[in-house]
Design a protein that fits this description.
Layout lengths: L8 H31 L7 E6 L6 H8 L12 H9 L4 E9 L3 E8 L2 E5 L6 E4 L4 E3 L12 E3 L5 H14 L7 E6 L5 E5 L4 E5 L3 H21 L7 E5 L7 E4 L7 H13 L5 H10 L9
Parallel strand pairs: 1-3, 4-7, 7-8, 10-11
Antiparallel strand pairs: 2-3, 4-5, 5-6, 8-9, 9-10, 11-12
Helix pairs in contact: 4-5
Length: 292
């Protein structure tokens, strides 16, 4: 039996080159075909279907705003990038995006549920029911009665929980909480719809709540003793160890004789310059001052 002779070197080299060229051509055809397949306009995003609670979001406007930001087609679209685009729209808290064959996207959104305004008056930020701060235009009638929370950054959730504790406590006063404030030293301050201001001081939440409960329980008797009702409350300071200080409309601690003497002295005083008179009128104003 004769053994086959090995092919000459030049033949082996030519066969190897031909194999390499064939593989390269095959790979090129696959790559070109894939590129054409993926970039073909026929696979572009043709529809976006939005589901979820949309009390503040118009689906048509939402699709019109987000569609220009979507890069790629049905196969190449980055779903995380698409999700971010939807969540950047005001009032949308979360968005779940998935491909909907053959050329669509299905989006499930969850809106923010506003519980309070956040920050100083005029601020465009709100707090949702998770204690998260977000920006949105709140000009609907449903938001007119929202309270305002003013506190250090990062304390929105704690303040919302504190508000939920305090709101039912002040109900016997016949006025709801308009503003709840917390300063950098941990001192709480409350302003009611009636305009009354209550300084609650610092300490644990339990301490603050107990001080407010004691005040609400006893202030009707104190006001009645002065011939007034609780709606006459102007200011209250609960930071005392064993009591509280308050001011009621129409109630003064100055005796009648002292008041008459002051009035007589005022009448005998020479007329002041217009600017001084203006300052004097301002200084006698009894409206409570608001500290931010």
């Amino acid at each position: 039996m004769n053994d086959a002779l090995p092919a000459p070197l030049d033949v082996r080299v030519m066969n190897m080159i031909a194999t390499i060229l064939f593989v390269c051509c095959a790979v090129g055809v696959v790559v070109a075909g894939s590129w054409w397949f993926l970039r073909n306009p026929a696979f572009g995003i043709g529809r976006i279907v939005v589901h979820g609670d949309m009390s503040h979001t118009n689906p048509v406007a939402l699709r019109a705003n987000v569609a220009p930001q979507l890069v790629g087609n049905f196969f190449t679209l980055d779903l995380q990038q698409a999700r971010d685009a939807f969540e950047n729209v005001p009032w949308i808290r979360t968005a779940q995006v998935r491909r909907d064959y053959p050329n669509g996207l299905a989006v499930e959104i969850q809106e923010h549920r506003a519980r309070a305004f956040w920050g100083p008056e005029g601020s465009p930020t709100l707090v949702n029911n998770f204690g998260e701060v977000f920006e949105a235009q709140a000009d609907d009638e449903e938001h007119n009665n929202l309270p305002r929370l003013e506190g250090p950054e990062g304390h929105s959730l704690d303040m919302l929980k504190m508000y939920d504790h305090l709101a039912p406590i002040v109900q016997p006063l016949g006025s709801a909480i308009d503003t709840l404030g917390l300063n950098g030293r941990g001192s709480w301050r409350m302003k009611l719809d009636s305009g009354a201001t209550i300084e609650m001081g610092s300490g644990s939440n339990g301490d603050v709540i107990r001080r407010l409960e004691r005040f609400v329980r006893t202030v009707p008797k104190v006001a009645a003793h002065q011939g007034r009702k609780v709606d006459a409350l102007e200011t209250a300071d609960l930071r005392q160890m064993d009591g509280y200080a308050l001011r009621l409309k129409g109630v003064t601690t100055v005796s009648a004789e002292t008041a008459a003497a002051r009035a007589k002295a005022e009448a005998a005083r020479p007329a002041a310059a217009p600017r001084a008179a203006k300052v004097s009128r301002t200084s006698t104003t009894n409206a409570p001052r608001r500290n931010n």
